[in-house]
Design a protein that fits this description.
The structure is a single chain. The protein is mainly alpha-helical. The chain has a single domain, classed as Ribonucleotide Reductase, subunit A (Orthogonal Bundle). About 65% of the residues lie in helices and about 0% in strands. The chain contains eleven helices and no strands. The radius of gyration is 20 Å and the shape is globular. The termini are far apart. One of its GO terms (molecular function) is oxidoreductase activity. This is Ribonucleoside-diphosphate reductase.
Amino acid sequence: MTQIRDADRTHRLDPSSFAGGYFRNAVYRHWDPYEDISDELLEQDRHRLVAHELTEPAFDGLRRTLALFGAGEESVTEDLTPLLLVTEDVNKQMFLTSQLYEEAKHTQFFDRYWRDVIDPVAKERGFEVTAPTDQRYFNDDYVALFEKTEQAMDRLLTEDSPTNRARAYCHYHLIIESVLAQTGYYGIQSSYSPTGADLQDGDPVHLEGLIEGITRIRSDEGRHVGFGMHEVQRLIADSGVDPEIVRSTLQELLGHVAGALDYTDSAGERPVDATPLIEYATEKTTRRIEIITDTDADLPPVEELVHIEGGRELSTGD
């Protein structure tokens, strides 16, 4: 018979634990990328993109954004497992399991959007049909960011320590889940929602299906970011992790985030001024560092962690 690893527990779970509360929130906020994003919304997005006088380079900019998101979600789905394997607490294991499941759902949403919206629009407009895995969409900084993250996660399997765990959380939960993804949400909200900051020149096209999917994904990511911040803060307070290691790790990775955002197209042009996005990412990183290196600081609520000015927030009834 398999033995329970922690025989001191009187019950299997701790409902009052931080991870346990986040897991219950994940169960409550469950959504289906097929059932909860209607065919009608995606069809509306298709019609608007076809009718809009969007140039092929501008359309390819949208494709690049979605390709980066999709690849990021798939990467987390594939590479988060080492952290789950070295985690002992069952409440944290359950939360990380829910995160893996949610990342897989996000991957599914971006795949569906590409199949049902992006490819049909490209065909109807006479644009080149490209794959979301086309290497043109991933510059050196983006690739380096995810390669370093994979290395940080794999290191846990051979050199598990509080410091290496803190680095792993910094890579995934604080940079990829928080700063990179949050900046991407901000860019999509600004460019394709009537309530956004309108970072693009010309007449914007509003994609309600895309915004609906992003809103639900943001709701999930708020838990992921909050869990990672809580764990890094705890590792600093309880396990003696040097805050400077956390700070330097985040600042190093921020350089790759900035490089991933500042891209050139096939003609060598910069189709989008990345300055507002880089400033946004820098501000988010600075604020995350302030909170997690202060062991007395309270973490913001989940909704606040992924709040975007002008963005729709999920109500308790969604």
